[in-house]
Design brief:
It is built from five helices and eleven strands; from the N terminus they run E-E-E-H-H-E-E-E-E-E-E-H-E-E-H-H. It is α+β, with helices and mostly antiparallel strands. The chain folds into two domains: 31 residues; 142 residues, Jelly Rolls. Strand 7 and strand 8 form a beta hairpin. The model has no long low-confidence stretch (mean pLDDT 85).
Length: 175
């Protein structure tokens, strides 16, 4: 059954935990707060996305122009970024704070990693076009840059180093 997100009116599965469009958290009844990106966050993006040669002078202003659908969001402690099994191809970059990556297998949940500033996540669903393979939650207040799939397409088509990096990361984390 299909329902509508109360925040953005996107269609969502009735049992969804979050809206894939705006990340409205149905349990908490709120979406993560959108923040303005600053040059410090832009520098984290530049390193994480291998933009040194592609955009040597990557700034917050350039990030807003190049990634108009994307943004920096504040997640509360225990705030959910992605849920295992949900669809989605956005890429996430931890700019401040840390997140925990867990995978469930029905009865048990295993912590796979804790990722800090500069870490990428969401690359497996992006590269392999599969549902999310893990649940990711903030383990403290965190600032996460959500790179919208549509914004990412141009970058992947024109930045071989990033594409190679994401494929290698997805391969190593899939094992």
């Amino acid at each position: 059954m299909i329902a509508r997100c109360p925040s953005c009116a996107a269609e969502v599965e009735e049992d969804a935990k979050r809206c894939p469009a705006c990340h409205w958290d149905f349990a908490a009844r709120r979406a993560p707060a959108k923040l303005g990106i600053d040059d410090a966050a832009a520098e984290v993006l530049k390193r994480a996305l291998k933009l040194e040669d592609f955009f040597p002078e990557f700034t917050a202003e350039i990030a807003q122009k190049v990634f108009p659908r994307s943004g920096l969001f504040a997640y509360a402690d225990k705030g959910s970024l992605v849920e295992q099994g949900e669809s989605g191809r956005d890429l996430f970059i931890v700019c401040h704070g840390s997140v925990q990556v867990e995978r469930g297998d029905g009865t048990a949940t295993k912590v796979l990693a804790t990722l800090g500033a500069g870490s990428l996540l969401g690359e497996i669903a992006l590269i392999k076009n599969v549902p999310r393979t893990a649940t990711v939650t903030a383990v403290e207040q965190a600032q996460i840059y959500r790179l919208d799939f549509n914004d990412l397409q141009y970058l992947l088509a024109n930045n071989k180093a990033l594409g190679d990096h994401l494929r290698e990361l997805a391969s190593s984390r899939s094992r």
